[in-house]
Amino acid sequence: MIEIHEVSRTFAAPGGGEVKALDGVSLRIGQGELVAIVGASGSGKSTLLFTMGGLSAPTGGRVVLDGQAVYDLDQGGRAALRRDAIGFVFQTFNLVPYLTTLENVMLPAILAKRGRREAEAGAMRLLERLGLGDRRHHRPAQLSVGERQRAGIARSLVNDPGVILADEPTGNLDPESAGHVVALLRQLNEEGQTIVLVTHDADLAEQASRVVRLRAGRIIEDRPSMRKLAS
Amino acid sequence: MWMILLGGLRRRWPEHLLAGVVIAAVVAGLGALRATSSAAEAEVHDIAHRLGRNMLLLPADVAPADFYAQRYRGGLSDSAPERIKASPAGQHIKSMEARLYGNLEVQGRPVILVGQDLGWPALPDGRVPAVAGAEAARMLGLKAGGTLPLGADRLAILEVSDQPPDGLDSALFLPVEAAQRLLGRPGELSAIRLAGCWCRVDVKTLGAQIEAALPGSRAITVASVLQAQQGTVDVVRRYGTALHLLAAALVVALVAGLAIAGARRRARELGLLSAIGVPPGRLASLLVLESALVGLAGGLAGWLWADPISRYLVGAAAAAAPAPSFALVLGAAALSAAAAAFPALRAAALDPAVALRETAA
Q1: Could you tell me the fold of the domain covering A2-230?
Q2: Which residues lie across from B110 on neighbouring strands?
Q3: Looking at the partner chain, which of A82, A96, A97 has a beta carbon nearest the beta carbon of B277?
Q4: Which residue of B has its CA nearest to A54?
Q5: ipTM score of the complex?
Q6: In this predicted model, what pLDDT tens digit does every residue of A126-164 receive, in sequence order?
Q7: CA–centroid distance for A219 within its chain
Q8: What sign results for the dihedral spanned by CA atoms B314, B317, B319, B320?
Q9: CA B263 to CA B283: how far, in whole Å?
Q10: Which of chain A's residues have a Cβ under 8 Å away from the Cβ of B267?
Q11: In chain A, where the domains are located
């Protein structure tokens, strides 16, 4: 479970002064939810996601993940938390270009000291499941964008995290690849995986169970999705 | 993390190759410099050895010019060799040859008598063993096996020498005691030739020690020649130190520059590694280790090249010089690591959210 209490985040503005990216945001995300955070560019949705994930310390407020106040931990502790409890999926995939698909996926497991053989087996299972088994020795540049994003999702899952945080996961994909990724995320959620995703895509947002809308760093809407209501 | 380390090294091979080549050139240059400097020093040492044998001790009131013009006088006591042996200088001296030089008229001809402290044979009938220089033999009609009555003594000519000591071919060489007797200068010496190993003491100091042991004596040395030679070596060494510092600065600037540029280019990758759970300290050590490996490889290549380069520069003399120290290789690795440390710490401290966002396509 993720609890966000009155979180604020300000950045220094290029011309002097400050920009408030988050302004007293409070949110509670339960186990097994698929939450879509939506809003216009600059509304603070990516900042909220990164703050939730222990990547960007808030200037005010608290973030609690499974009972652990994230920013009470030191940098090493937060790194361990990200490694073990959170899976990140990025719009630009962020695969390490000189590693193979298999090595990219097994990397977080190796960091978690799971042993090379176990890490490789876990990564292979995920690649097979996501239809990338025959692409395991390819480097990211040799994959299609859809395959790269599926590899990114496989990497986020390899340490069996409590939550997946996805920043615009379909933002760089063609409609067909985006459809595959959406279906995959929904399937993972139906298996009990908590997922928080940031998106511009209204259709994708309605595939979630809950939609949170941000404007100027504040939550202006927090409602069940159309799909949820329909079901 | 080896996966990341090796992958990173492979991917950025051109810049690593550049750094490695520069480090190799620096290490090879320093190694060769050290070898050539050592070769020059060995040469000075060798000169000291060879010229040291020519150290000559004269009475202080005898001008060397008079001595070399064969105007001889006494002045040193024949106890001088024992006193030198007993002095601090004695430990450096391997052999001493005491001599008494004198001018004498024989059969109306000017002859030089040289009393030499050598292992002369004992002859029967009180004859005195002697060697005649070729000119002296010609003037006095002497032949090997002949005799020459001189004062109360009879000299037995053992040999006529075409190449007498010091080129004194108008001299008669005989035992010191006989020369003292014939010249009427009992207990006197004109000069002492010293030979030995001057390795652990410079010749000037040794000369001063001998003069102190024998007041009233003067040591004629080659100190000034050696001093000039040593001065050259010292200059090379001094510039060598400056070159070492310059080389270190070059390596630091290059590695730090490449580390900064590399960290900027890799911001997204570093942000990602941070996001998936690599702690900042480990991220920094990864970058430092990468630089250290490049420094180690470059240093090793330079170390291997130092010997051929020094052979090319100073030829066979390089063989006598010690092999380039392996500390150069370790130094290159350590310097590379140190140069990368600050950029690495800065890169590792970058907010991963900022790194991922700013470098996002």
Answers
A1: Rossmann fold (3.40.50)
A2: B105
A3: A82
A4: B275
A5: 0.86
A6: 999 899 999 999 999 999 999 999 999 999 999 999 999
A7: 19
A8: negative
A9: 11
A10: none
A11: 2-230
